[in-house]
Write a structure and sequence with these properties.
Shape: globular
Radius of gyration: 17 Å
Number of strands: 17
Number of helices: 0
Oligomer: single chain
């Protein structure tokens, strides 16, 4: 999908695909060294890709002094109004910094991916919320499900204006978490799945089921008993 050549120690990572099921289109956002944001597009179901286009400039007005960014790391979605929504996190410190803050939000694109903008940020009432996954609920609102730092549980925030603003975050006691990524996915019958590693260590990859649009969770099933992480 992307190769710069040479032997520079870089990371091309955090790929977030948005698969359009009506045709063979896949939109893809990713980062370079968690510093720069890029977008590319496949119109043949991933066989070939356009040359990546840099989008870092759209983050210039984000009201947070970020030094690092990370898209996802999970898939994005197409909303019912055809907009594209991609989860993103921001951090104001380098990995080695002892004190650093995180913020979570979404990026919003038009249906063909030609125009992108940064959405709003989730308030900081729960600190250090980052790696997130987004769901459009049946009433058109957005649900952002986020990893916290040693919070013990996942956190969620809601948006009634398609990601422009967000409610304060709230812990979800029914979704324990071991400070790792998680992923939301809606089934064709309307139910919602969530995968993560609960507990106190990165093991026991677990799938939970919601039959009320992510309001409550039950029916969890362990998929892998051993070491597990990003799903």
């Amino acid at each position: 999908i992307h190769e710069e050549g040479g032997d520079a120690p870089i990371t091309i990572g955090n790929p977030v695909p948005v698969v359009i099921h009506d045709d063979d289109t896949i939109h893809l956002l990713f980062t370079r060294n968690n510093k720069r944001l890029f977008y590319t597009l496949s119109e043949d179901d991933g066989l070939t890709w356009r040359a990546p286009r840099e989008l870092t400039d759209i983050l210039a007005d984000v009201p947070f002094s970020w030094l690092r960014i990370g898209t996802g790391p999970v898939h994005g979605i197409q909303l019912r109004n055809t907009q594209l929504a991609v989860p993103i996190w921001y951090c104001d410190g380098e990995p080695q910094a002892k004190e650093k803050r995180y913020r979570a939000g979404v990026l919003l694109g038009n249906a063909d991916g030609t125009m992108w903008q940064a959405g709003g940020l989730v308030p900081e009432n729960i600190p250090k919320l980052n790696e997130c996954t987004v769901l459009e609920r049946k009433d058109g609102s957005l649900l952002l499900n986020m990893r916290g730092y040693k919070a013990g549980f996942r956190s969620v925030a809601h948006s009634d204006d398609r990601g422009a603003t967000w409610s304060e975050a709230a812990l979800v006691p029914s979704l324990p978490d071991t400070t790792c990524q998680g992923s939301l996915l809606r089934l064709q019958d309307g139910r919602v799945l969530f995968s993560n590693v609960p507990g106190t260590s990165r093991e026991k990859l677990t799938l939970a089921l919601s039959e009320d649009d992510g309001e409550t969770w039950g029916g969890s099933q362990v998929l892998e008993q051993g070491p597990s992480a990003y799903a």
